[in-house]
């Protein structure tokens, strides 16, 4: 399904359940590899997907996630989180400059 950019399309999916000791199709590594392949395909196809709970590791991935809202988000983050408090999802986001521009 392809929709115009301004439309919102919601997808509800079931989470896979992995068996910790398995090395087969029900094992964690297989499931993670399968999910990564799906995300890579979507990225190569320019489908404009967004992950609900993303695990991005670069600033470029976060910029792509926020798209045209990146500049506004980045500006507000530096205002409301001037110390750049780290968390698992914000470690690659911009940090505010120290007071006085130092």
From TrEMBL:
Q: Which residues form the signal peptide?
A: none
Cofactor field:
FAD
Q: Which UniProt keywords apply?
A: FAD, Flavoprotein, Oxidoreductase
Mention any Pfam family matching this sequence.
Cytokin-bind
Q: Which InterPro entries match?
A: Cytokinin_DH_FAD/cytokin-bd, FAD-bd_PCMH_sub1, FAD-linked_Oxase-like_C, FAD-linked_Oxidoreductases_BP
Q: Name one GO molecular function term.
A: oxidoreductase activity
Domain Cytokinin dehydrogenase 1 FAD/cytokinin binding as annotated: residue spans = 1-83
| Family statement drawn from the similarity comment of this UniProt entry | Belongs to the oxygen-dependent FAD-linked oxidoreductase family.
- Descriptive protein name: Cytokinin dehydrogenase 1
- Species this chain originates from: Abeliophyllum distichum
């Amino acid at each position: 399904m392809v929709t115009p950019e301004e439309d919102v399309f919601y997808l509800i999916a079931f989470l896979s359940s992995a068996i910790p000791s398995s090395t087969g199709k029900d094992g964690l590594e297989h499931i993670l590899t399968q999910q990564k392949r799906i995300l890579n395909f979507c990225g190569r196809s320019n489908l404009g997907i967004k992950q609900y709970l993303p695990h991005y590791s670069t600033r470029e991935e976060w910029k792509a996630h926020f798209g045209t809202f990146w500049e506004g988000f980045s500006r507000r983050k530096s205002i409301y989180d001037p110390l750049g408090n780290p968390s698992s999802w914000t470690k690659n986001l911009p940090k505010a400059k120290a007071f006085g521009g130092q």
